[in-house]
From TrEMBL:
PROSITE patterns: SRP54. It is a peripheral membrane protein. Part of the signal recognition particle protein translocation system, which is composed of SRP and FtsY. Gene3D superfamilies: P-loop containing nucleotide triphosphate hydrolases, Signal recognition particle SRP54, nucleotide-binding domain. This is Signal recognition particle receptor FtsY.
Length: 319
């Protein structure tokens, strides 16, 4: 059942369109696997397993899904192949429900602290800075005041890009330029957020440090200076992953979850890829809520992840 209360018609259309390549890839393969077969047998399940793995759902998550379907087949010896889509849909929906405890309200900030401090991490090229810009635009549209911190000081492009987003959206950007101390930027951004009574402070961080130790040290230092103003900051650490990279996104998630306490995920660039299954696998394997997904170029195409709507769009027939 789709939760249309949280979703406008435009957002739903955007989600449907963004998942089109993944859906076509998945169902064309399933269609070929069941062609000429009337019941779900071991051969069909073997092919389904291969299809899910090659759709970047991931081996462990695929095995879990297949085992659940096998249990249902064991109870109904003559399960019709026409039912396979529905069963697969049910099991994917169940997995997402287990791993994302609740659907989040649309671009809301917890009210128990102010400002809410969000630290954004991820490798270069995943759409991290763009995601921050789009988040800023959507929170600003909801009437929230936002301060950005350009703490990815290793790349001039990242600093400049965040400044451009700030100008475009109309939110202040704290920047010390390139090759400056990232923790000093974070310090000043949080200070400005506190001084101005901002609702949200978002800090961009370096996408690549030479070793995991460097990454851990840098993030630890950023956290320490923030805590001079807000002892519990950051309230959230969000990892941005590029959905189109498939299994590379899994590897990045492994590295960053080892290096820092990631509490939320944003998965971008799902519109240009057939690898949207990665959302299911990453959600299942890391037990970290997928908070946002990117399904297009427009600001509104960064959506709050709604598992019911995601599954509905993934399995929707026709236009």
């Amino acid at each position: 059942m789709a939760l249309f209360g949280l979703f406008s018609k435009d957002k739903k259309q955007s989600l449907d369109k963004g998942l089109e390549k993944t859906k076509e890839n998945l169902f064309s393969k399933i269609g070929r696997a069941v062609a000429g077969k009337s019941k779900v047998d071991d051969e069909v399940l073997d092919e389904l397993e291969e299809i899910l793995i090659t759709s970047d759902v991931g081996v462990d998550t695929t095995v879990k899904i297949i085992q659940r379907i096998e249990e249902r087949v064991a109870q109904d010896k003559f399960m019709n192949t026409a039912e396979l889509d529905r069963i697969l849909r049910d099991e994917i929906a169940a997995l997402l429900s287990e791993n994302n405890t609740e659907d989040l309200a649309d671009f809301e900030i917890p009210e128990n602290h102010k400002p809410h401090v969000l630290l954004v991490v991820g490798v270069n090229g995943v759409g991290k800075t763009t995601t921050i810009g789009k988040l800023s635009a959507q929170f600003k549209a909801k009437g929230k005041s936002v301060v950005l911190g350009a703490a990815d000081t290793f790349r001039a492009a990242a600093v400049d890009q965040l400044k451009l987003w700030g100008e475009r959206v109309g939110v202040p950007v704290v920047s010390h330029g390139m090759n400056t101390d990232p923790s000093a930027v974070a310090y000043d951004a949080v200070k400005q957020g506190v001084d101005t009574g901002a609702d949200l402070v978002i800090i961009d961080t370096a996408g690549r440090l030479h070793t995991k130790v460097n990454l851990m040290n840098e993030l630890s230092k950023i956290k320490r200076v923030m805590q001079k103003f807000i002892p519990e900051a950051p309230h959230e650490i969000m990892l941005v992953l590029d959905g189109s990279t498939g299994q590379n996104a899994f590897i990045q998630a492994q590295e960053f979850t080892k290096a820092t306490e990631v509490s939320a995920l944003a998965i971008t660039k799902l519109d240009g890829t057939a690898k949207g299954g990665v959302v299911i696998g990453i959600s299942d394997q890391f037990k970290i809520p997928v908070k946002y997904i990117g399904v297009g170029e427009q600001v509104d195409d960064l959506q709050v992840f709604n598992k019911a709507e995601f599954v509905d769009s993934l399995f929707k027939k026709g236009n």
